[in-house]
Amino acid sequence: MGYEDITIVALFILVYAAISGRADRTMINGALVFTSFGFIVGNSGLGLLDLNVTSEGLRVLAELTLALVLFTDAANADLGVLRKTIAVPRRLLTIGLPITILFGTLVGALIFPGLDLIEVALLATILAPTDAALGKAVVSNQSVPVGIRQGLNVESGLNDGICVPILFVFLALATGEAAPQSSGILALKLVSEEIGIGLVVGIGLTFPISQFLRVAAERGWMNESWSQLPVTALAVCCFSAAQWFGGSGFIAAFSGGLLFGWLAGKAKVGVLLTAEGTGDILTLITWVVFGATIVGMGMGLINWQIVCYALLSLTVIRILPVWLCLIGTGPRIAEKLFIGWFGPRGLASIVFAVIVLNKNLPGGATIAATVACTIVLSVITHGLSANPLAMRLARSEESQGDH
Fold first, then answer.
1. For 299-320, how does the pLDDT look when each residue is reduced to its tens digit (9 = 90+)?
2. Global pTM?
3. Which residue of 160, 166, 211, 307 lies most exposed, with the fewest beta carbons within 10 A?
């Protein structure tokens, strides 16, 4: 990235920051603006932004962005409400997520006869997790019932971490690193390691560090200008340490954020501001890079099969499993449809797609193009529908309450 690229991105950040309040009240979400800007000024557009970002560089950027967003979203969660509404995210993660991957694999096998079944399963797994950053417009919208907001927040915070070991099992099968007969044992081992290590690292780091920071603040050890930085550093530390030890950094970031929010109490509002702002900037840069590089490259590979699967992934493949897994729970029909629709795809899918792309699988290009198409459609459709559908759900809740 040259100085001219940095100048263009910095100017865009300044402009968007100035109108961010008004933008949040419109139908157009940040991710849509950022991606569109990247595409327009990138190599496929005006050519003003010349980004030679490697797949590894994009993966690291997306991972750190997602880790910080997960940490701050979890820290802002209301654990009292979450305890009362835990049935929804529990069902979405333990029942809905596996059904989504299975359903996505079956549909993909019909649409992509040229792909190996394991490659189709990889595609379904890549597109199964929802995006905490892209779904923020709904999770932070006070018009949406708090139980649904907390449920979607927890789902998006944990489903990417749960999908990591599943992804690696399919990758091992696709590359021949594991035999089909050992897939069950490998899956159990990876799931236990990823989730277990992620939880241990996230909680194990956050508790002592939070206590240390509290003591430092009480005794006036910290300079005021530095007091906002430890939260960002803690989020990155939870993620990177878990990855280092072989666990899921996303699970570590989310679990660490939940614990940090509980320990900080009301004081979390002030100390999280800088971390949230940093997450917003990284999110903006990630989407600009995505729009300038991946979207442009994927345009030439788009065909009817890719568009068809992308549309189904955002609708039937997501909504039907959500509907099935929430049978017998509290949400009404309108709420179930709302939860099913708001399963945006974004940063986690970008990270997973880059991991698969680096393995040079025969169907890697098709997988990457399908993921890019799905994410772009998600950015557009979920971005445009977030505020209108949230308001409509709020009116539905009010009319229900009147009766």
1. 778 899 999 999 999 999 999 9
2. 0.84
3. 211
